[in-house]
Amino acid sequence: MTVIPLTHILILSSLLFIIGFVGVVVRRNTLFMLMSLEVMLNAVGIAFIGAGSVWQEADGQIMFMLILTLAAAEVAVGLALLIRMQRRYRTLDIDVLNQMKG
Amino acid sequence: MSRFASIEGLFYLAAIIAIVASLKVVTGKNTVHALLYLVISLLAVAVCFYLMGAPFAAGLEVIVYAGAILVLFVFAVMMFGLGIDEMHNAPQSKGLSLWAGPAFLGSLLLVELIFVIDNSELALQLNNQVVDAKQVGILLYGPYLLAVEISSFLLLAGLVAGYHYAKPEHRGGRL
């Protein structure tokens, strides 16, 4: 049982999640959107670890490890897509991709 | 013991560092500086994990997130050749001010970690509530074995997709 109250852990987690979400929605540079996604995944990890440590169970850490795997795969695919986009359009602006043709 | 020097106080300090660094990531203009702040944010979260009694997860956060995923980001940024972007958004010679922020936040985290390890009372308090790697491993290769297999498939899919998308278009034809 950790001494840190669960509500405070969840407040931290949701604050970080909101920051990341605002970043994904507001930014037009796709690289920054990927970084904001990382912040969001991290925030979810905090919630899992916090819950796991409050109830003294290892399940939270296992979920965190699965999120870690997910983040690694997501970043690999996302960055490869960005490399392709940079090669094709010479920019990372997301608004360039709104044409749905080609 | 004062209120600040408790586990809670240190947790709040690390949480504030994480939030500030994340805000700097989201609002940043220069990609490399934003990545620097992202590393600080991840390290702050790792300190939070340590203080919550999950040292194994804290180690994983530093090794995998800050060590591997962020290096992947840095590689990609260097590959993009965003030279023009960097010139626009980064003043050429502002001296200290560019890396002073991340360095300050990082050294604050270091001081905090050394304080926790050095203070035997806090270390004892942390040891009582720890969920160690052994429990995680037993659970991971017991009830969660299927999830491990599925995540290995996920990594394989990421590998194939990364190779396919990043391959030059003229070479190799259709996949």
From TrEMBL, chain A:
It is a multi-pass membrane protein. One of its GO terms (cellular component) is NADH dehydrogenase complex. GO terms for molecular function: NADH dehydrogenase (quinone) (non-electrogenic) activity; quinone binding. It is an enzyme of class 7 (translocase). Its EC number is 7.1.1.-. NCBIfam families: PRK05715.1-1, PRK05715.1-2. This is NADH-quinone oxidoreductase subunit K. It comes from Colwellia hornerae.
